[in-house]
């Protein structure tokens, strides 16, 4: 059993459902469409230890992004409980928000503002002084490969990959002790991916950050994650170290199995970007 102080995140029997309208809406019929309940997260339980990089893999629609949104307080679970460093995400929302930050595959910005202006705005929301935030922002942006000349360009003039780097920098700026990364390197070129991945490793090793990561990149998952949960149709179908997961399947043609082999065998689905 783990000591309570070792646990960064507990997800206990969490469920999340959405109601969708199906069929054609006939204007002359009051009930011309059907309403269908879709289960996005189905009785998920897991523990993430302090200082761990914990990965979540799953096909599109598996529920991994919904789970991250529940942890981040953006969605309220329909059942179960989520605890971040001893704080319940529903009962102590503001306390949780002070401990976390999130990078999403579809990051939002003030597009007319520069990366520096966006980061300074985010820093003020967390009560960080402008002088400290500016110095830290320059260091992080430079570490992620954003050139100094680009720090003062409007976000709308930057590529999607560059915008994603700024999103990562904005999350790192507040030095969260739990960092939620929902496909953070999607859209980045190989060099930019390596820069972000190296910085994530540095955050974990130097700053004692705990990281929850969803990704479609098998190599990224294997290189960064201490343990990985595989989700399929809202449920965890496997949870182990990368080596432990690969030991569950037989490699093709006598070769050592890969995480992709594990994923395909457990879910029967392709893991694709999107």
Mean pLDDT: 86
Q: From the alpha-carbon coordinates, what is the Rg to the nearest angstrom?
A: 20 Å
Number of strands: 10
User: Which strand order spans the largest sheet, edge to edge or round the barrel?
Assistant: 6-7-8-3-9-10
CATH topology grouping of the largest domain: Rossmann fold
Major sheet characteristics:
6 strands, mixed
In terms of per-residue confidence, which ranges show pLDDT below 50 for 5 or more consecutive residues? none
Helix fraction bin: 25-40%
Shape: globular
By CATH, the architecture of the largest domain is named 3-Layer(aba) Sandwich
Q: Which structural class do you get from the secondary structure elements?
A: alpha/beta
Number of continuous helical runs: 9
**Helix and strand succession?**
EEEHEEHEHHHEHEHEEHH
Q: Can you identify the CATH class of the largest domain?
A: Alpha Beta
Proportion of beta-strand residues: 25-35%
CATH H-tier superfamily of the largest domain = P-loop containing nucleotide triphosphate hydrolases
Task: State the separation between the terminal residues, measured CA to CA.
Answer: 38 Å
Number of domains: 2
